[in-house]
Amino acid sequence: MNHKLAAAVCAASAAICLAPAYAYDFGSVRINGFGQVVTGSTLDNNRKFETNSNPTYSYDADPKFDEESLFALQVTAPLTNKLTATAQIVSHGNDNFKTEFEWAYLNYQFNSDWSVKLGRQRDPLFYYSDYLEVGVAYPWLRVPTAVYGSVGGFSNIDGISVNYSHSFGKWEFDPQFIYGRYTGPLQLGPDNTATANLDDRNQVGFSMHAGYNDWLNLRAGYFVSQLSITNTPVDPLINTLQQVGLKQAANDLAANGDTITFMELGTEINYAKWEFISEYVELKSYHNYIAHSHDFYVGLGRHFGRFMPMFTYGRVNASSPATDETNDLASGTVPAGALGPGTPPVPVPGTVVFGSTVSGLLASQTSHDNFYQFDLRYDLANNVALKVDYTGFNSSVPGRNSSNLVSAGVAFSF
Amino acid sequence: MKHMIMFGLLGLAAAQAQAGAVVVAKDSSLGPMDAEEVKKVFLGREPQLSGQSLTVVYQGEGAPRTDFETKVLGKTGADLSGYWSKLIFTGKAQAPVEAGGDVGVKTKVGSTPGAVGYVTDGAVDASVKVLFKY
Hints:
The structure holds two protein chains of two kinds. By secondary structure, chain A is mainly beta. Chain A contains six helices and 22 strands.
């Protein structure tokens, strides 16, 4: 919102007019907003830079301006003394600035410490989940892809969360319990070539943040859910395996309500102008083709007045979750027991064709990626930050060569 | 001569900004606070006090605000702004509202149940109750 518009709105409503970063106050309804305009391109001709992190992004050698640009409004209305309704309406540039309700929840504040949120809200998987898209709230141009790309493209959940917040002396504790479900599209990598349907249900999660004296922040989270992914390029293979009677192998590949666990550990130290941030995540899914991964990043930056340079190294380690059955199949053998109870594994020439497809699929889930991210942030004003970023990427995945991405943007809040 | 008067007035303004008070409406049920509690309230860590939802009222840019932020909150500028962004856009706290100057704060505090603000010492009058002095 530019100042003229803000002034006009203020004048029209005769509300108290406010400086940015504090709520526009229409009676008791609070309106805040944030956004960013980002442009970027790869330094190498014919090289793309893509990930399936959230928000997803994809750059090539010709600069794009809409890929990570976004605009958001957050509206909070008190319904009673303890009950508020909050909506966060976000338009993403790479979705043609279509508006979408990312959050829509009711919050009941029992007392100073306890509250319950009901509805669509942020899934608190990561340290920066809550302000994933609020660029002014973190030092990078974008949150480190190595970790934030680990769960594919979803960040919200429909459900209920119970939140506690209390200080004991200089310590502050914020545990959170969440239960819910997310259904929606999932971008499949490595190059977002396909969109599948994701159903992540019965997610039970617990996260805990502890802060000490404003400079030390520790966080841990653990989440379990049942995951189904349909409409994927893998479906024909799974169907064929099933038709020829290799049901166990088919089951071991398909993500059909399988248990998936996610663990996160985070640290932020903000001391004497230095900023250290690190996160480690571990994703494990059982009885499907999705890789187990353990990813991390470490970043170190320093404030120089309004400037803040930061270097971050991120690493993805994902590996094939082969089972005995898929291993047998990959070696051209009908797995033990597949031809009747107690039957031994039998080499069958006809399975070789499945075998190579299966081993190819599992191999495609393996990757060892490095991200070298250099950022410079400059605070133009209290609520406006200018940022430039260079990210160098290399991967062990054949066909995903190294590439270099430069991007710049302005992030703001009001 | 003109300049000297200006200078004098500025000096006076600066002197007045030296002390201030955290205030609520005169009929508010809220009682005296200590420095730690004031800090918690104005940093959005106390959404309620004695069952009453709080509305935090900041002053517009100027000496009284800088003074309050430096002396009481220990955070100011982009640092404070970033801090609030985190709370607001996580839904962890309600954004504070901003009122222009001492008069604006007194009006807002008087007309909004649960509103807590701060004014310079000289602006304290019978319309407000003082919870803390700094």
